[in-house]
Design a protein that fits this description.
148 residues; alpha+beta; 3 helices; 9 strands
Length: 148
């Protein structure tokens, strides 16, 4: 009878240890898509360098020679930007908590894609209040940027 009690005690202890070592569901931190996208955009503090720019489907990369974009925590700075398409600096936010859409401080909505060290930004410039030469800047832009 003593052996049965000992065996029962050992089984009970093993069961308790096994049960207590199991992870509870939901204790692992859930991924945060906005934080992950922010980290990708910040690019370890490195700038994004223009690779290709299209406007209304036409290659206009030569108008953005030397263009770089540095993204910070909800800020950005540029070099060699065409002012009507990109300010020299500004702020941005995720639009409607969507990691693939940002809103620049000039109310420009930008679709964002990142893959393999390549950042793709797609947006429209529609400044009807500008006349003459600036009105020629209006259109649908796609910037393909590479990590520096």
């Amino acid at each position: 009878m003593k052996n049965i009690k000992d065996i029962f005690s050992i089984v009970l202890i093993i069961s308790f240890v096994t049960y207590s070592s199991c992870k509870k569901k939901g204790t692992d931190p859930q991924p945060d898509p906005l934080a992950d996208r922010l980290e990708e955009l910040i690019n370890n503090g490195s700038s994004w360098e223009v690779s290709e720019v299209t406007k209304d489907g036409y290659d206009v990369t030569d108008q953005f020679n030397g263009f770089t974009l540095t993204i910070g925590e909800f800020t950005y700075t540029t070099t060699n930007a065409l002012e009507s398409a990109w300010s020299s600096s500004g702020t941005w936010s995720f639009l409607n908590n969507d990691a693939s859409t940002i809103l620049r401080d000039d109310d420009t909505i930008i679709d964002v894609g990142i893959s393999g060290g390549q950042l793709t930004l797609t947006f429209s410039v529609d400044d009807l209040s500008s006349g003459g030469r600036l009105r020629g800047i209006n259109g649908d832009y796609q910037f393909v940027m590479l990590s520096q």
